Amino acid sequence: MSIQFDLDRAFLFALLLARAGGLVVAAPLWGDRAVPRKVRVFFAGALALLMLALEPAAPARPESVPGLALLAGAELSVGLAMGFVARLVVLAFEMAGRIVAIQMGLGAAVLFDPGQARPSNVLGRWMWIVGMTFFLGLGGHHHLLRAVAGSLDTLPLGRGLLGDGVIHAIVGITGESLVSALQIAAPAIGVLLLTSLGLGLLARTVPTMNVFMVGLPLKIAAGLITIALTLPYALAVARSEVGNLVDRLATLVVAA
Q1: Cα(117)–Cα(105) distance, rounded to whole angstroms?
Q2: Could you report the per-residue pLDDT of 98-137, keeping only the tens digit for each?
Q3: What pLDDT digit, counting tens, does each position of 170-195 carry?
Q4: How many CA atoms lie within 13 A of 93 on its CB side?
Q5: 78: pLDDT confidence band, cut at 50, 70 and 90?
């Protein structure tokens, strides 16, 4: 009798570990490559143990390995989707930085980012750090962990994220993040547009002036100053994004 109980608990823990593992892989901060793998594995295991204490309902234990793999894959998809939705909050800031960098003439200032193992724009990476700071400072990681724990009731183990409703929900949430990125970048884009117009008028007025030599540092300075002055506005956007995170995660789970 005790062996059967242990098997059931191990099966339940494996499903919880798959959901927690998917979350850790895709979520901001924990999913960053700068975080050692051992730390991510330990955190996923600890999160699975905490969710195990909630005594969630377990699905019927499959008799075959492929059946177990399918259930684990379904739970992995839940964690990945929820982590991706949370990561969009930070990615909105990085995207805003990339957009502004192109307008400033820094679109080619790309360096290899070892933290994410991919090329990254300098200003985009800096805005990513700003977004991560706002995300953590506003308690976005707490909202995410509470949502994952609450998903055990709204989305029981074994169901996974399947169907067109989930795809439409993710597409809609991604679109909202793109709008937030444009909102963050809008002040700098407006200032840089006015700067470009002024340089164009200056080039027509003083044809002998090398506008490119004057314009590049001027646009960089104007962009950086505007970003610095509009950080409180960016914080307001981040507060709105973090506030909507719980609703977006709920929408994702309900759409399953």
Answers
A1: 24
A2: 999 888 887 766 776 666 666 778 888 889 999 999 999 9
A3: 889 999 999 999 999 999 999 999 99
A4: 29
A5: confident
CB 157 within 8 A of CB 12: yes
Amino acid at 197: L
Spatial separation of the C-alpha atoms in residues 2 and 215, rounded to whole Å: 76
> Cα(67)–Cα(72) distance, rounded to whole angstroms?
9
Among the listed residues 96, 89, 103, 102, the one whose alpha carbon sits nearest the alpha carbon of residue 125: 96
| Closest to 12 measured CA to CA, from 69, 65, 74, 61 | 61
For residues 100 and 185, is the Cβ–Cβ distance under 8 A?
yes
Query: C-alpha distances in angstroms, 229 versus 126, 184, 188, 233, 234?
Result: 15, 12, 10, 9, 10
User: Can you read off the two tokens belonging to residue 69?
Assistant: 């793999």
CB contact at 8 A, 27 and 83: yes
| CB neighbourhood size of 209 (10 A) | 13
Nearest CA to 226 out of 187, 199, 186, 180 is that of 187
H or E segment to which residue 121 belongs: strand 118-121
What's the average model confidence in pLDDT over 70-81? 87
Tokens 């989930």 locate to 166
Token pair, residue 11, equals 């099966």
